[in-house]
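Hi,

I'm pasting everything inline rather than attaching a file, because the server keeps stripping attachments. The sequence lines come first, and each chain or strand is labelled.
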Amino acid sequence: NAGVTQTPKFQVLKTGQSMTLQCAQDMNHNSMYWYRQDPGMGLRLIYYSASEGTTDKGEVPNGYNVSRLNKREFSLRLESAAPSQTSVYFCASSATYRTNEKLFFGSGTQLSVL
Amino acid sequence: DAKTTQPNSMESNEEEPVHLPCNHSTISGTDYIHWYRQLPSQGPEYVIHGLTSNVNNRMASLAIAEDRKSSTLILHRATLRDAAVYYCIPLVQGAQKLVFGQGTRLTINP
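And the predicted assembly:
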């Protein structure tokens, strides 16, 4: 029962370094999402992909890029990490991009930027 | 997007029912009401959703007011595993962009 798998689970970066967070789902879902959660806060949407081949900005896209590599995989790239990007990152997927579909979340990547 | 108001925290005892309220007075007629919860150090987990009538599943019940300006998530017999932050999220028809507020932190006493 893998569901949504995120790698890595933990990462420490120095300011200015780049890295890619990986996300894969094995439920044959069409839609995938990246969220971030700052301490004591709710989740905020960074980018989403309603279907393979499409990506769109969410609430807080600045400083990030995404790639929908195929139907299973949706990666999030930080080109030049900043301390303000210290957060827990969650990937999610849903069968389709409709309001009555539930989202399935991964267990998160804890990122610290020094 | 419709705004929601939830209590910051609630406390209950194990094996008792819990009623978690949510005010969403600006909701439109076609917005679904979704509930998610987040256990400590985990990603959010879907709980239940509804549009107009009350809904039940194995995890919880959702009671939606007749005017749809508020809803209540009901956990019938709370267990220690139900301790989590619960988020009430109105979803605009046709859009799957969950907007998480602060939620309600539920503590369950043994």
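Chain B touches chain A through 25 residues (CB under 8 Å).

If the labels don't parse on your end, tell me and I'll reformat.
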